[in-house]
Amino acid sequence: MMLPLPRVAIGAMEPGGSYRPILWALLDALRRQGLHIQPFFATAFFSEHRVEAVFAGASPRHLDPLLMTPELCREWFIRGAGSADLAVIHGDFGDRASGCPAGRLETLCEWLDLPRLGVLDASRMGDSLPSPPPKLDGVLLDRAESDSRLAELTIRIETQWAVPVLGSLELLPSLRAELEDVQPSRRPLQEMGRKLVSHFQKAGEPERVVEIATRRPATWEHPRLFEQDPPLGRVVIALAYDDALNCYFPDALDLLELRGATIVDFSPLNDDSLPEADVVYLGGGQPERFGKKLATNDCMRLALRNHLRKGGRIYAEGGGLAYLCQQMETAVESHRMVGILPATARLTEADSRPRPVELAVAEPCWLAKKGQAIRGYLDGRWQLEPAGTLASCTADAGVPYPLVKAGRTVGSRVQIDFAAQPHLISAFFSFTTCPSDVADPWQFQ
Questions:
Q1: Given this model, what pLDDT does residue 49 score?
Q2: CA 397/CA 415 separation, integer angstroms
């Protein structure tokens, strides 16, 4: 069976370089031509996802060879890319990804038979070209100092590597600084996108990128891993979604719905009550930007506590975990939060890049049984300081409080893509609890 699935991989080729501005310029240029672009991260953690959604016109999805089998990867890729005109998978090539195996685009390129476009930082190049990734199909040149330098490098690359240069961006220091500092709100990013595209189109050839992406039909079968599975049951999940909390893996939500869940959203910032639900799911985000408003929404804080008292369950991750703590602290301010978890969540910039971890569950909770393994990416932005009896679900002393619980609440500093670990999905549909989960979480505080 052959599927059309136009697709291409884009990644930086040298350590320390950034491929994002030229990637965003290409995505915006393609979108402005009327194409439906579906971006994919090559790792299952959150990174500038809302920024990406503005430039591509679609929320990014996630693939990850560290967490997924080839069959699972192909399943979610086909589901995500099937209705798009072009799928763009981006990450890091070669040695840039040596510290994080999941970032290796080469693995995904092999599993999905992806054409490969490498991004070269012209400002970092000397007199000789670096070694190209294997099977390279084209190059994007970023930070070209001048037209003459761009022409020189284009000739060398197309002569020595025998691949085309498909686009470039100048140094643009002011615009790049704006992109780094801007908050991911839609209007200013759209204005910056127009500026990026105007520079990219001077030498960019997005039509040739599309032509390269359509050369290889997918020859592998659609795995259809979940179509024969019966629903696990009926469960209603209240999903927190607003400017404060908004980081979710789309495929994980899709899988929950495939297995029988009904998902309804609510806003911790603006709503004064919760939807009727069995489980409340609080994802990551940037609650620190809205600390005062979250702290003053007493109705929502009470609603979350009452949800537990009535027998409901809560799963909170990253920023959602910080929101459930007694206090949330940044370098400049501190706010009282919901208070379900007896801890202070402290925002830190040190070691903030997510790193892959595998946790062994030592203390069972409603999400996982004792002995089960949970894999994901530790979010180093938030540190927990206990302010009472904070129950850790793992015994790994090298990672303090990666997974904690209080009554029927489970909080995670690890970003968990449930679509990559379908065995964890069944916990959302189970109404049985551990003996230690039924206790009122406030009796220990």
A1: 62
A2: 19
Under a CB-based contact definition with an 8 Å cutoff, are residues 186 and 54 in contact?
A: yes
pLDDT of residue 178: 82
Structural domains in the chain, sorted by start: 7-213 (3.40.50.300), 235-444 (3.40.50.880)
pLDDT, residue 96, reads: 46
Residues 327, 295: Cα–Cα separation, whole Å:
9
Distances (CA, A) of 214 to 114, 209, 279: 10, 9, 42
Residue stretches of the chain with pLDDT short of 50: 96-99, 101-102, 444-445
What is the pLDDT, as a whole number, of residue 102?
43
Distance CA 259, CA 235 (A): 10
d(CA 383, CA 329): 10
| 3-state DSSP of the chain | CCECCCEEEEEECCCCCCCHHHHHHHHHHHHHCCCCEEEEECCCCCCCHHHHHHHHCCCCEECCCCCCCHHHHHHHHHHHHCCCCEEEEEEECHHHHCCCHHHEHHHHHHHHCCCEEEEEEHHHCCCCCCCCCCCCCEEEEEEECCHHHHHHHHHHHHHHCCCCEEEEEECCHHHHHHHHHCCCCHHHHHHHHHHHHHHHCCCCCHHHHHHHHCCCCECCCCCCCCCCCCCCCCEEEEEECCCCEEECCHHHHHHHHHCCEEEEEECCCCCCCCCCCCEEEECEECHHHHHHHHHHCHHHHHHHHHHHHCCCEEEEECHHHHHHEEEEECCCCEEECCCCEEEEEEECCCCCCCEEEEEEECCCCCCCCCCCEEEEEECCCEEEEECCCCEECECCCCCCCCEEEECCEEEECEECCHHHCHHHHHHHHCCCCCHHHCCCHHHHC
pLDDT at position 115 is: 96
> Cα 211 to the chain's mean position, in Å?
28
| Structure tokens given for 187 | 């209007």
Report pLDDT digits (tens) over 149-202.
Answer: 999 999 999 999 999 999 999 999 898 888 877 655 555 677 888 888 898 888
Query: Which residues does 442 contact at the CB level (< 8 Å), separation at least 6?
Result: none
